Amino acid sequence: MDNKRSDEIEFFGKITAGITHELKNVLAVIKETSGLMGDLMDLTDTKSFQHKERFQKSLSTIQKQIENGVTLLTHLNKFAHATDKEKAEIDLHETVQEMTVLCGRYARLKNITLNAQLPDRIRKITICQVFLQMILFSCIEYCISGLPQQNQIDISILQKDKGDYEIKFDCSDELADSGDISAEKSHPNLLDKLKKTAALVQGEVFIEPSAVSLRLSSYA
Amino acid sequence: MKNLKILLVDDEVEFVTTLAERLRLREFQTEISADGEEALNLFDASVFDVIVLDVFMPGMSGFDVLKELKKRSSNIPVILLTGHGATEEGVEGMSLGAFDYLMKPIDIEELTEKINAAVKGNK
Question: Which CATH fold would you assign to the domain B5-122?
Answer without folding.
Answer: Rossmann fold (3.40.50)
